[in-house]
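Lab meeting, item 3. Inverse folding demo.
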């Protein structure tokens, strides 16, 4: 059994059930939602997952769901489900953060590829969210020390620049590294680089 849940969001019971059948044959656990509003209000938006979302729904359309996931910085990888003639709208949802779109009726081979892309995307987004959350636990002093380490300064140079002892720098740096779950200086720098890239997007 796969670990990521696939949420199937569609207001048509027949479509929900046929989609669930296909997804279940691929060993993904599923949860069914009758429309976009029920999904957004009922799902944990902070958890990595996959969502197959119909474009046309009452109460909350598929494109509105994509926008809300983006606004909540949710890691959920969403796949839009479209009918004939809706491809141009589906493409716009990709620009807003959807991972892929599927045209009805769903082709199993296309579904497998879309689920694989969504799985990679949601895990990557979840990891990015985790890194930012960890970085935000650093104190202002730890962030300052981390910034100077990132610039390439040695502990001694940081101590001189900040008018503090080398021991204080070592303690602050060690604390920052622990909070970011990094074991080496190279890993620490790589994580800070990722933080920098994420915060300057």
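The presenter then showed the designed sequence:
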């Amino acid at each position: 059994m796969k670990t990521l849940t696939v949420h199937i969001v569609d207001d048509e019971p027949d479509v929900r059930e046929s989609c669930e059948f296909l997804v279940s044959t691929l060993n993904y656990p599923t949860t069914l939602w009758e429309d976009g509003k029920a999904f957004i209000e009922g799902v944990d938006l902070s958890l990595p997952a996959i969502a197959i979302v119909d474009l046309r729904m009452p109460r909350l359309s598929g494109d509105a769901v994509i926008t809300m996931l983006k606004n909540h910085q949710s890691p959920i990888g969403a796949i839009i489900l479209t009918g004939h003639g809706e491809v141009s709208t589906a493409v716009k949802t990709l620009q807003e953060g959807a991972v892929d779109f599927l045209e009805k009726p769903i082709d199993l081979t296309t579904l497998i590829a879309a689920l694989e892309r969504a799985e990679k995307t949601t895990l990557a987004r979840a990891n990015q969210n985790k890194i930012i959350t960890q970085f935000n636990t650093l104190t202002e002093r730890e962030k300052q020390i981390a910034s100077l380490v990132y610039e390439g300064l040695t502990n001694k140079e940081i101590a001189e620049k900040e008018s503090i002892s080398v021991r204080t720098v070592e303690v602050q740096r060690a604390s920052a590294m622990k909070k970011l779950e990094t074991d080496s200086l190279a890993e620490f720098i790589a994580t800070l680089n990722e933080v920098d890239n994420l915060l300057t997007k």
